[in-house]
Design goal:
The chain folds into 2 domains: 184 residues, 3-Layer(aba) Sandwich (Rossmann fold); 68 residues, no CATH class. 40% of the residues lie in helices and 21% in strands. It has 8 helices and 9 strands. A 6-stranded mixed sheet has the order 5-6-7-3-8-9, sandwiched between helices. Strands 2-1-4 form a 3-stranded antiparallel sheet, covered by helices on one side. Pfam families: ABC_tran.
Length: 267
């Protein structure tokens, strides 16, 4: 996608009033042969993500959070319902950095640019700009093994941003990091989201992380995943993970999450 096409896609999202629209989506997977039949993972999910909105998606293990993200990304199709992303194909960032170890940090980013058919002469400049955006100036020529865990996730974020999508899907991207590194990357993600006016759908198991980052938190029930409850997070930025308001809302959401787990007998 060219820059002009990306801008046009962004305008389409603004005009429609949503960056992603999930309408009555269900997803089943074929199970073992027997009377149980297909396994229903998601059941009648309806959710909009507004342009520029940061939505946190919570739920017990196995409730279908990652499945929903894959559907929005276009990696799979729903069994029922519709998904619309008027701004074009979303960018997806996984829990694992998924960088190619035989490529440098810069070349990993350039791969995404190449797939977008960015001219070869422009790729390095754009890759270095994106490394600067995630505050990894000078890391273009570094190999993956030379980077810390936090640095690798910054490169993975830069590679996702290289897709030039206004909708960023993130599947527990900081789960494997230590608390201090995760805290720093929370600040960086918040800065980039606001500077770049992105829409973000962020999957996490960490309730405080969701409250610290998101404008809205959506809780899915245990399998099959349904929208159990939503919270608007009115806490002003900058937020800290240890802020009393963050902690108070996190306690409320955690209580509801535990109730969902107890109700459905999931651990």
């Amino acid at each position: 996608m060219t820059t002009a096409m990306a801008r046009a896609a962004g305008r389409r999202a603004e005009e429609t009033g949503y960056a992603a629209r999930i309408g009555h989506v269900s997803k089943s997977f074929a199970g073992p042969a027997g009377p149980a039949g297909p396994q229903l993972v998601l059941d009648d999910i309806t959710l909009d993500v507004a342009p520029g909105e940061f939505v946190g998606l919570l739920g017990a293990s196995g409730c279908g959070k990652s499945t929903l993200l894959s559907l929005v990304a276009g990696l799979d199709r729903p069994s029922a319902g519709t998904i619309e992303t008027p701004g074009g194909r979303p960018a997806l960032m996984f829990q694992e950095h998924a960088l190619f170890p035989w490529l440098t940090a810069g070349k990993n980013i350039e791969l995404a640019l190449r797939l977008r058919r960015v001219a070869k002469a422009d790729r390095r400049t754009r890759a270095e700009e994106l490394l600067g955006l995630v505050r990894l100036n000078g890391a273009y020529g570094k190999r993956v093994h030379e980077l810390s865990g936090g640095m690798r996730q910054r490169v993975a974020l830069a590679r996702a941003l290289a897709q030039d999508s206004r909708l960023l899907l993130m599947d527990e991207p900081f789960a494997a990091l230590d608390a201090i590194t995760r805290d720093v990357l929370h600040d960086e993600l918040t800065r980039i989201w606001r500077e770049e006016n992105l829409s973000v759908l962020f999957v996490t198991h960490n309730v405080r992380e969701a409250v610290r980052l998101a404008q809205r938190v959506v809780l899915l029930s245990a399998r099959p995943g349904r929208v159990a409850r939503e919270w608007t997070v009115d806490i002003p930025h900058p937020r800290r993970i240890e802020d009393p308001d963050v902690a108070e809302l996190a306690v409320e959401i955690t209580g509801q999450l535990r109730e969902e787990i107890r109700r459905h007998g999931r651990h």
